[in-house]
Design a protein that fits this description.
homodimer
């Protein structure tokens, strides 16, 4: 640990994992936290298993093409609950607002929250509001915690993953991060890239309600740090496996690819806010993709790679040119306050 | 609603209630949220009733006599769960950190969190860390959400309160707010006032495990806005009652009284972080106080007043001089960022 907290500790990359593993877990280690799943899985009684998650949103700017901090905070928490197979039910909402923020801005944010929470049938059941003096925070930070119920027969975890499993992504990558960066206006050109910010509740529920539910091993939404961070975390938490993905199979929109090429960004490192990575048995992978493709949010779903046996866990990309390269955890903070 | 968000919207006083009632509930009204209890009470199944709470902590300074932002964030969430009679079990912890904060400061905060959560047997099960650029927040903000289980026979709510009930406070008032203000060093003198920041889990569990549990009608911890805000909220949410309290019965330490007298503060308006107001049947009030007094955190517990029938809900104080005055909801933000 450095002597001071670095911006990169919040990036979702290598420094975040070091911060969590070497610092957070040193203080708060316990069976549930140590799983480091997107939501904690807690047993309330023999018959009741809950998912519990929390996330703070500090995205800048607070409005961006395709969403805003309100929509992001609800969708993000819903998606984290979905990762462990839960049915998202209740959300608590805590606001830290900078004195002097226009009430009209609050109205827009609340409208977004209302719209997405009603559509997805999750209830905002409790909350808190703190207001700090001007200059003591940047407009508004929102923290959402969520509770979902996990059916008894569902148990998604790293230890289910095995060599041969297929890696599915539910759609095209890197849109959220690019949209937020573009909306900062710092690159001197315009683009029609929209954030993919969306709740995946409907989509994931379709898969979990299908005959293939029992073959779903693991899910993770590739947010901060992108697909690269999510897959690296999976190989690091699962014993004896690597993941190989193929560049030509990874869905990416032309405008996103173009933007990343221009600026030298690797789209694998860039945040998504409406995509899910699924690790599934190879026997049902094609069928799961077929289900996903029936829905708007899953229309570009694809099998992008597979799990292989390996003593040295790593993520390998087979490039368009047929070469292979290791996909590292992003190290530095390329994109602060992306969510 | 004003055109801009005011500091007082976060004060716990009149403006906070207007913000919640006229703005928040306009967007997010539902059966659970509308109760406006310290924790949401949610039914997961016929046999499982949970408490769910969230609070953001922006206290300044982050270290103060008697506690720090870490201890405060855990105790505050535990106490909110206790208010609805829950057994606090799980906490999620979300950090928003200013880039450059000394790691040593984080270590101290984490040590406090570890100490109190282990002592109170609540588990930190999930979390999130965001780091924002220097100047974009003030050192560190912590948001904690909590889950507790409510036994089926416990049902604390406004509708249980009736004329004749006694009002108990578990100890001396106004210490937290005074300690934080003093630690800002803005008043040119020193005092030995300590924040009362504490988890009330042990204390409240003793009462709920006693034969008198069924006679406990309602609990609220008088934090922001102090006893004045908490009691005003109770009379406003309960039909046809007022609350009368007696100044001479309200426990207050000499140093706190002196400090408030000097600065013209009403101690009834000042935040507590380790006290509980309990509304109980008059027949058991003395016995409940006896139980409380057996424990360190309840040694100054006292019956401070009673509930009376009244068409015009208000909180009335019988002063030391025998006169009566109405205790209003605090209006303006005397004490920003007290928690």
């Amino acid at each position: 640990m450095k002597e001071k907290i670095l911006l990169s500790y919040g990036s979702g990359g290598k420094h975040t994992f070091e911060f969590i593993n070497n610092f957070v877990l040193k203080y708060f280690s316990n069976d549930i936290l140590n799983q480091l799943l997107d939501s904690a899985v807690i047993k309330i009684s023999d018959n009741t298993k809950l998912a519990f998650s929390i996330d703070s949103y500090t995205v800048s700017p607070i409005f961006f093409p395709g969403g805003d901090i309100g929509k992001l905070s609800i969708c993000g928490t819903i998606n984290d609950l979905l990762c462990v197979g839960a049915k998202p039910l209740f959300i608590s909402l805590s606001l830290i607002i900078e004195e002097g923020l226009e009430t009209e801005v609050m109205e827009k944010i609340f409208s977004s929250i209302k719209e997405v929470s009603e559509k997805e049938n999750v209830k905002i059941v409790t909350g808190d509001t703190k207001v700090v003096q001007k200059g003591m925070c940047d407009k508004i930070f929102i923290t959402t915690a969520g509770i979902g119920v996990i059916e008894n027969n569902i148990d998604l975890n790293y230890n289910k993953i095995e060599a041969g499993d297929a890696v599915i992504i539910t759609g095209s990558i890197a849109e959220h991060g690019c949209a937020v960066l573009l909306s900062r206006g710092a690159y001197g050109f315009k683009s029609d890239i929209q954030s993919d910010c969306a709740s995946l509740k409907g989509l994931v529920e379709k898969v979990l309600a299908s005959n293939y539910a029992q073959y779903i091993k693991f899910m993770r939404d590739p947010t901060r740090g992108g697909v690269a961070a999510a897959l690296n975390e999976i190989v690091n938490k699962t014993k004896g496996i690597s993941i190989e993905i193929e560049e030509e199979k990874i869905p990416i929109k032309d405008n996103v690819k173009h933007f990343c090429d221009l600026l030298g960004f690797d789209p694998l490192n860039i945040a998504n806010e409406g995509k899910m990575l699924m690790i599934v048995s190879p026997t049902v992978a094609e069928e799961v993709v077929k289900i996903l493709k029936q829905y708007h949010l899953g229309k570009d779903a694809a099998i992008i790679g597979k799990v292989v046996r390996d003593e040295k866990p790593k993520v390998v990309l087979k490039t368009l040119y047929g070469t292979k390269r290791i996909v590292e955890l992003p190290i530095a903070e390329e994109l602060p306050r992306i969510c």
